[in-house]
Amino acid sequence: MSFNVNKLNILYETPVEYLSSISKELGIDFYLKRDDLTPLGAGGNKLRKLEYLVQDAIDQGATALITVGGGQTNHGRQTAAMAAKYGLKCSIIAIDEYPGELSANMLLDRLFGCDLYLKKSDGRPGSVQMDELIEKVTKNYEAQGEKVYFIPMGGSNVLGALGYYDCALELDRQAKEMGLEGARVIDTVGSMGTFAGLFCGLKDIRSSLHLTGIAILPFNEKGVKNLEQYINDVKDTYGMDFNFDPYEVDLETGYVRGGYNLPSKEVREAVKLMASKEGILMDPCYTGKAFAGIIDMVKEGKIKKGEKVIFIHTGGMPGLYTYSHRIEFEKELMDGVHIL
Hints:
Number of domains: 2
Number of strands: 10
Helix content: 40-55%
CATH architecture of the largest domain: 3-Layer(aba) Sandwich
Strand order of the largest sheet: 1-2-10-7-8-9
Radius of gyration: 20 Å
CATH topology of the largest domain: Rossmann fold
Order of helices and strands: EHEHEHEHEHEHEHEHEHHEH
Largest sheet: 6 strands, mixed
Number of helices: 11
């Protein structure tokens, strides 16, 4: 379906792969939608959103992009890559500490020519500190004659969500071709744009696929209401043809492992399982944490034996090289390192 909104059209269809070893390990039919294989900036889900957002920036005559996130933001990395491709300046702003090394996503950001602004929290609300930094960096750009376009965290607004509306249509067609009608689709939920887009797309075309989200950061009642409002906003903005019932939002919130991007042994075990059984890398902040949640859901009977599951691999592999996660992996993997 078309909503008369322009986008860049740089992405190709990503495959859905059957993972035989993981399927045998978990006792389910496990498939992976490989959105980690999108073509720019080491891949990932944000490029689907950025097709719309960067096109909008270009249409408005912008010459510089500003976005926000954590210091190791995957969205920021992909925004920096898109900016490089389309000749735009780019800055990422984070209320976060410098980790003492230019590693993982931050290294890639700089390779793409993106400026990083990292500010240790001064104890005030993060939104207040972030707004101040955004205003400062915007004024710096404008003083240089640049026109700034702001992209929200995760690219998660009503326009960005259209990227995963598109993905929902693509996935529904692939599922039908593969005989996976009625399968459960599982998505990692952080800034909510990927989930909102998938939900709206699947509902709008009356897909038989069932969407489950696994939260990777704490979701209180207000957070759940924000997700419901986000879905409503996308639906209403583009006049989508379905009735929205909040009870249809299937969100698992019990697998956060203490908080956002915190090292977790269960997540590391899930990452190692996927790597050792299938040769596929997941990250310890998003996909690895959600996959650990899937393993628990199977054990707890929330996912039934023999059930067909399609997990959206949203990328994030550079996160394996962040210091806090890397040192924990090193402790656990050194037994196989033989220094002669």
